[in-house]
Amino acid sequence: MALERWFRRSKPTRSDEDATPAGLWLKCDGCAAQIYRKDLAQNLFTCPECGHHYRMPVDERIDMLADEGTFERWSGALAPTDPLAFVDTEPYPERMERVQEKQGRPDAIVTGAASMEGVPVALVVMDFFFAGGSMGSVVGEEIARAAERAARENRALVAVTASGGARMQEGALSLMQLAKTTVALEALAEKRLPYVTILTDPTTGGVTASFATLGDVILAEPDALICFAGPRVIQQTIKQDLPEGFQRAEFLLKKGMVDDVVPRAALKNRVANLLRLLRGERLPDRVEPQDGVEELEAPLEDAATPESKAPGEEVSRGA
Ligand SMILES: [Zn+2]
After folding, report:
1. Which top CATH class is 56-278?
2. For 116-138, what is each residue's pLDDT tens digit?
3. Strand-strand pairing, 217-220 and 260-261
4. CA of 252 to the centre of ligand 1 (A)
């Protein structure tokens, strides 16, 4: 009996659904403040005290990005098979069945049509809570189909990534998804439709090495880990200390790998404005040029004596 006590849990295990006082509160990873879980959800899963960004469930992410009532789901008809008859601590199909039941979807991705501030888009959102957002055949296929359908329907593509990388239980078939998603994005490029990616914590492995970093504009959430191999693997391989903030969104912004780091609350508006600009539409507050006024091709030579002419004379000169 004494031996058994060694293995007994000293604290009860907590889960998100836990309604006990311990489960209702959370100690912030960023500032150690006690946060009420409901406040966290209402604050887009960011800490009300310090702004620390927590991983966001897919449905809440879609609610945040899509205009109310506009999301129409495309994904969900495909489910993974077990081509390698893979068994680790349990057979792959059993593992999948368990996660599918918990997450309520066949694989780690949701795609669909929506509008963002009125701009028609196709949305691709990865589910990190489904097997670590790993990319197997179904995830790759859903992304490819979403990209091709977006091109057919003249929609911009917006992808929110969160992934531990390729799904090892599908072996080399997972690696083929890198090529498949990359090729499918060509359909958007051919029609000159914008593709914006939002990299969230964590975006790693084969997802980083394919569609996540192929956006026309690549945005990231604050402090998101974005990498191919993780910092621990690199440190153990090269046996050197890594720089402060290595592979975090802000570090990668400085190095030019992401275009901007955008807080979650500002993401929808930022993406919608980018899409308008990339589609050649005017932003709502842009000043329209006046009728009958032409922009001069090369005003530089006249700029030497700017006081001698009023701008109106410059324009009428060539008429
Ligand atoms: Zn905090």
Report:
1. alpha beta
2. 999 999 999 999 999 999 999 99
3. parallel
4. 23
